[in-house]
Amino acid sequence: MEGKPQVERWDVFELQLEGPSEGNPFCDVQLAAVFALEHRELRIDGFYDGEGRFLVRFMPDEIGAWRYVTESNCDDLDGVQGGFECVAPGEGNHGPVSVRDGYHFRHADGWPHYSVGTTCYAWAHQRQALRLETLRTLSEAPFNKLRMCVFPKWYPYNQREPELHAFEPDGEGGWDYARLHPAYFQGLDACIEALMGLGIEADLILFHPYDKWGYAEMGAETDAFFLRYVVARFAAYRNVWWSMANEFDLMKKSMTDWDRIGRLVHQLDPYGHPRSIHNCRGFYDHAKAWVTHASVQHSDLERVGEWRHTYGKPVVVDECRYEGDIPRRWGNISARELTHRFWEAFARGGYAGHGETYLKPSGDLWWSHGGVLHGDSPARIAFLREVMEQGEGGGWEPVDGIVPHGYACVAKSEGQYLVYMGLAQPSELDLHLSEDKSWTIELLNPWEMAGKTLHCELSGKQTVKLPGRPYLALRIVAQD
Amino acid sequence: MEGKPQVERWDVFELQLEGPSEGNPFCDVQLAAVFALEHRELRIDGFYDGEGRFLVRFMPDEIGAWRYVTESNCDDLDGVQGGFECVAPGEGNHGPVSVRDGYHFRHADGWPHYSVGTTCYAWAHQRQALRLETLRTLSEAPFNKLRMCVFPKWYPYNQREPELHAFEPDGEGGWDYARLHPAYFQGLDACIEALMGLGIEADLILFHPYDKWGYAEMGAETDAFFLRYVVARFAAYRNVWWSMANEFDLMKKSMTDWDRIGRLVHQLDPYGHPRSIHNCRGFYDHAKAWVTHASVQHSDLERVGEWRHTYGKPVVVDECRYEGDIPRRWGNISARELTHRFWEAFARGGYAGHGETYLKPSGDLWWSHGGVLHGDSPARIAFLREVMEQGEGGGWEPVDGIVPHGYACVAKSEGQYLVYMGLAQPSELDLHLSEDKSWTIELLNPWEMAGKTLHCELSGKQTVKLPGRPYLALRIVAQD
């Protein structure tokens, strides 16, 4: 007797079955499997992968002996039973990310996720050599989330026809919206898996307006058909996030459409991956129940606190303009400015996102194609990520009372504070430190990626001398 | 027979009369003079200057032989007649400033006033040596407007008791609010006159909250008594502007009080000097009839266009944080940042204001005491002023269509454009130049105070290469 297959907790168990390929298996065949561990059951939708191949993907969230049985309207696929052994996760597998502590994120095993995202909208639709270069770059970059489009992109600097498309041609120059093209989605599988291997969350953008093929205007029924397929196919990857749209307000969908799409994804996803929607101008109402966190496009990071208060959820400023040199103003801020914006968001209890848009002879811009990074902000973002991760505790929460005059200050615990002074260049600053601890004050230079201890063993109300230069931070830590 | 006195157009004609000093001449004696040129008459209030001396000050606005006759309830002061010859203004005398072209300012002779203001709130209440130092500094500085308080100031860094006070003591530790102290106002006369000699507008702040003596809470009747005196005394100085308050919203006055104060000053001032009111948080409604221009405290200069639209009046961001290094965030931005803010305001059709708050051993901070300037922004503001003043025409008005993608662009005429790129660092930019002219494109570096010609004889749609660095501007001028 063969041993049962083993699957790591939060890895993908994939059940592959042979079934009919005639007719339209996407529409005609229903398939699900009920996975059970002791008395707990989860019903997971399957999907058609082409060539008579049907898949059910499942992410087990508990260690133990799982059993399954399939349900289908097709006899070949119905009543198939089996099981697998879910074992402890390997190194680097912390499970899926979800919202914790109101405004922050953690992996399922408790490991904090300090969101440090980047943007490569169309990287999955580029030639293989470029995709591999993107992954090599990411393997050395500080980013732990990547925004990417499920559909291909047509936009200035993005005018290459993708090799594959999401639907089969209808023979009349359009698409058969009842027949998906499995090879297209297999390519996305590979991209998501590769990111998972690098410990990077794949923030999947389900709709976007930068389209010339018709994906942006498929109608409600096709949208739902597409979403069911995408969620059935990708949800078992622990690193998936759902972004209903990029710049939703530039699309020809009503607010009712967006509400329906968001609720549908919420309902379909058995694992509760993070869900949001990204704006161009006005924000979506992120207070709505299906939204797990606010995905924001905005340049004024000083408003992060206001948005936390408005929505009561984590604030991820996925787009705050990109480091680059293109003519468009959303894509030509300096590395210094983007570094400043990351710190500003962090020091107000939120998270900023990176993108890069340098004009290079290759025509590849990181923000869309991936490839290599040319800018100076990623190294600084790596430094910030180290600062975020240092010390015990979870999310850095805004606190008052340590530094007067309204400086942005966050705390990870009662013994760890971080003050970011941004544009301010005080030559001295008052600190109101608690008297029952002894504190070390360190001056951090986010651009130079350096720290310098200013004082040890301070306590109570103190005035500290500072260099009188902008863009500096203070780390204030209680000594043991 | 002696010749009639001669007075320059827009200078002060001062009529001095001897009258009673017993009783309370401030309240008991009414005095005015009717000044006439041909068939035109203006009725000008006089005021008591102490020691039995009564003054009527008048700023003639037309060349010619003016006559006057006084009116008073006091026989000694009633029916006094005379005249003077108003002659052409001397060099540097361009007359009072008023709003022109909707969003800009000009002197009465048509000379444009590009507002480049600074702030020395309490300079007039400092010791004489420091006042003289302030004037020496101003004589070499680029500023053409100075915000200054009529009342003394009590605030952090401002805790010196002034030598003189505006009212006489009441003998019980308070003030006799029916008796002004003429020596106090004579000191202000000298300050305003000195600024006039330097070509600097005196933006007189009539009320402010930084007070420990009671001036901030005198009550409506005393406020009106004070305003009548101040307007009668100072309005004949051509360089006077009226600011009803600094940070009006921090004072214990209602909106009704401010409306009444603004309307009263509007009604009392025979010359229509510029009038506004400065906020801390929320703006006053500058659309109200008595307001001539929006005096704004705000840090986001990208919103200047919005405020122009809202109020339909010139926008002067008198306070956008100061160059300095004090702990408070309104007083510690860098010279680079303040320079950036001046350009940002200018390139959106408005005007920014300067202040400086460096901690120095002397304890004198320019923003309040005057003295010497330590910062690096004034030289850059001088460069900007040169740019503003270059070429024919009046105010720089926002224009669309020359540079796509929403860059801030203003034009002085159809042949002179200025683009400020601010945080953006494009390595190339499209220009849509009219084809019926030949254009020179100059790259300006506001921090280096330098210009470099990039192209001559350009026409039509063009893409120009740029250095890919932030904080640069383009000057685009049609060749003759």
The coarse overall form of chain A would be globular
> How many angstroms separate the termini of chain A?
57 Å
Mean pLDDT of chain A equals 97
Which fold does the CATH topology of the largest domain in chain A refer to?
A: TIM Barrel
Biggest contact:
A-B, 29 and 29 residues
The protein's oligomeric status is homodimer
Short description:
2 copies of one chain form a homodimer. Chain A contains 9 helices and 30 strands.
Question: Would you give an account of this structure?
Answer:
Two copies of one chain form a homodimer. Chain A is an alpha/beta fold. Chain A has three domains: 6-87, Immunoglobulins (Immunoglobulin-like); 97-389, TIM Barrel, CATH 3.20.20; 399-478, Jelly Rolls, CATH 2.60.120. Helices cover 21% and strands 31% of the residues of chain A. Chain A contains nine helices and 30 strands. The first copy, chain A, has helices at residues 25-28, 128-140, 182-197, 220-234, 255-268, 304-311, 335-346, 366-369, 377-389; strands spanning 6-8, 13-18, 31-37, 40-48, 53-58, 64-72, 81-87, 97-100, 104-107, 112-113, 117-119, 145-149, 167-169, 175-180, 201-207, 240-245, 275-276, 294-297, 315-319, 323-324, 351-352, 356-357, 397-398, 408-413, 416-420, 428-432, 439-445, 450-458, 461-465, 473-478. Chain A has a seven-stranded mixed sheet. Chain A has a six-stranded antiparallel sheet with strand order 23-24-25-30-27-28, with helices on one face. In chain A, strands 11-12-15-16-17 form a five-stranded parallel sheet. In chain A, a hairpin with a 2-residue loop joins strand 24 and strand 25. The longest helix of chain A has 16 residues, at 182-197. The N and C termini of chain A lie far apart (57 Å). The model of chain A has no long low-confidence stretch (mean pLDDT 97). Chain A binds chain B through residues 300, 321, 324-329, 332-334, 337, 358-359, 404-407, 423-430, 468-470, and chain B through 300, 321, 324-329, 332-334, 337, 358-359, 404-407, 423-430, 468-470.
